[in-house]
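Posting for a labmate who doesn't have an account.
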Amino acid sequence: MKMKHNKKRNTGFLYEVIIRELTKAMVEGDKDRKSSIIKIVKENFKGNTLLAKDLDLYKAVLETRNVDIYTAEKIIFQSRTQKMSINHKKLFEEQTILVDTINKEINSNAFNTFVPNYKSLATVFQIFHPKTRTKNRVLLEKQMIESMTGGINEEKELMKPIDNLTYKTFVKKFNEKYSESLLSEQKNLLNKYVTSFADNGLELKFYLSEEIPRLYSKVNESLAHAAIESDSDMTSKTNQVLEILKVTSTRQVDNSLVRDILNIQSLAEELD
């Protein structure tokens, strides 16, 4: 019998829910709510909290890609071993406080938020859980190892660390496409993206919490420009850009999202 997944005891899920609520707040331009959520993230996932340590273990498994089977097995084994060494009573207490904070200060419906990598988060939760039956654990680990060793991930869900070569290639292709040097805000975005693995992507997400509302405001204001207002095709395309910005809270931070933001940054500069 498969063990039931308790998402409110899944630290990875709790973190993703909060980040998506943060993105919603920034798109809606709710500065007070955004500041409140950022404070919650910093208090719970930075420093020596058990939540931060637990999240690191989830990410150690979920963010690993293109390694050999031995390495994947080793990462899962070491992560599960470290998970067992965490004081579960204290972790439970921290999770309880965080769940209560989400209910009271963010949104009691936040736990129903769509999280793209929910299935993988649930898989890691069950791999880590001491009451998961041996056969089920082995099958779940096999599934995760296939993903970690380069198997196709149907959800395209994970924000994986990128090395300097990948970063340079990414910037080069972008420059070639637009035949211009990157804007300062584009360089800032790319720098935060390439270093996002160092802090669980917090700095990148905080940057986006400021940048996306700025872009939304800039593009939205352009609808009042005479050249756009009088052209139904341009109006339609501008609204499409606004829709892209609105749904960022449901998207994983990956190359595709970063590329979209880079394009919109160029558009915003042209509108100026």
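Reply:
Got it, the structure tokens are right above this. Residues 164-271 form one domain.
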